[in-house]
Structure formats: C-alpha cells, structure tokens
C-alpha cells in the first residue's frame, strides 16, 4: 500500500490517499476538490471510498464536489452528524468569509465491510475533540490516522462546547498503548510515531 499526503485548504488539513493497485481510499477529503480530482485522474486511480476522522469542516469540505464526479459515500461517525449539519456556518465563522460549498449527497454512518476487509482497517473510537472522532489503524502497515486527536508534539483542542476532556484523555491513553513503532498520520502537520509521542501524551494527560 502507498500512502500519499496532501495538506489542503486555508487550514492546511491533511488529506490522505491510500493506494492499493489502482484503487484509492481517501481519509479526510479536506478542501480543494479540483486538486483531488485532478490527482485521481493523473494517477489513474479508482476512488472506492472516503472516510472522515471527524466532522470538522476543514477535513470534509471537498466531499460534495468530489461526489459530483464519483458516486462515492463519505463514511462518518453518526455522533458528528451535527457538525455536518452546520458545516457552512462553521466554515464561514473560522475562515472569515463564506466559502462555496457543495452539499454532501451521500453520507454513510456505518463504514462498509469492503473497505474494512480490503484495506485491513481497524476503527478505533477516539472521541474528545469531537464526539464522533475516530482513528483508522492499519496494523499490518503499522500506521494510524488520528485526525485531530493526536499530533506531533500536540493534541487536539478540547475547548469547544461539545468537546469532552475525559473522553480525550481516555483516547490518548488508548493511542499510547499501540506498538511504539506505529507511525502517526494526523489531521495537520507532520507524521510522528507513538514512541516519539509518549512524553507528549503523558504530559498532556497530566495537564488536563
């Protein structure tokens, strides 16, 4: 499997292509749908699915426009449905302007068995930053996609009204128990490893 990262949009959210043969699974479609569509075409990839680590606008804004070209669902935890419902308003608040967002046409609240089986995905529920935050673990490849739960030398915000500090603490503990050589691909910034984040996780938990 090949993993390709793009940092897209005003907030530089990480969008990941998981490529197996000529098939592509996207984790966090982020923004800049035209760029994503061009990359799929340039690499001659068949898009088979889109996964969201959580429902924040900067990680999923491109979804609707991508779906105009591909009849592919976005799989997202139902606990973050409320964030989808107010996507445009939230984007305008944080960006300072009203972006032109194509509404998602195909949302699925339960991930398909095809994606789990063919890509060897394990879903780890890692709430706290949002109620429905998830991480996607590929044990064979020793990688995990943590969204905005765990970053290199940082953790996700927990000061929004819907955040839960206790849940985030438990999620960090769960991630910290993964094999230490697991590579962490987060929602923003550079990759790291569980080993390198042990101190970050411990200090963050103690400060919470």
Question: Taking Cα atoms only, what radius of gyration do you get, to the nearest Å?
Answer: 16 Å
Tell me the total number of β-strands. 13
Give the second-level CATH assignment, the architecture. 4-Layer Sandwich
Poorly predicted ranges: none
* Biggest sheet character: 6 strands, mixed
Q: CATH top level?
A: Alpha Beta
Q: Number of folding domains?
A: 1
| Mean pLDDT across all amino acids | 94
Number of helix segments? 8
The geometry reads as: globular
Task: Name the CATH superfamily classification.
Answer: Ribonuclease Z/Hydroxyacylglutathione hydrolase-like
CATH topology, by name, is: Metallo-beta-lactamase, Chain A
Summarize the amount of helix as a percent range: 25-40%
Order of strands, widest sheet = 1-2-3-4-5-6
Strand content: 25-35%
Instruction: State the secondary-structure class.
Output: alpha/beta
């Amino acid at each position: 499997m090949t993993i390709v990262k793009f940092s897209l949009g005003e907030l530089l959210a990480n969008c990941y292509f998981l490529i197996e043969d000529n098939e592509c699974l996207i984790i966090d479609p982020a923004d800049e749908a035209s760029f994503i569509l061009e990359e799929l075409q340039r690499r001659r990839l068949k898009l088979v699915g889109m996964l969201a680590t959580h429902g924040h606008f900067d990680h999923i804004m491109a979804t609707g426009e991508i779906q105009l070209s591909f009849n592919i669902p976005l799989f997202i935890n139902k606990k973050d449905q409320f964030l989808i419902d107010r996507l445009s308003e939230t984007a305008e608040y944080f960006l300072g302007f009203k972006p032109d967002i194509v509404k998602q046409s195909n949302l699925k609240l339960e991930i398909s068995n095809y994606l789990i089986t063919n890509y060897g995905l394990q879903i780890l529920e890692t709430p706290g930053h949002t109620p429905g935050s998830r991480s996607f673990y590929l044990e064979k490849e020793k990688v995990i996609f943590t969204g905005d739960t765990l970053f290199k030398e940082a953790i996700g915000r927990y000061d929004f009204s819907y955040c839960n500090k206790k849940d985030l603490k438990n999620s960090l503990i769960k991630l910290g128990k993964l094999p230490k050589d697991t590579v962490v691909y987060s929602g923003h910034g550079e990759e790291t490893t569980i080993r390198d984040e042990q101190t970050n996780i411990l200090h963050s938990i103690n400060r919470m």
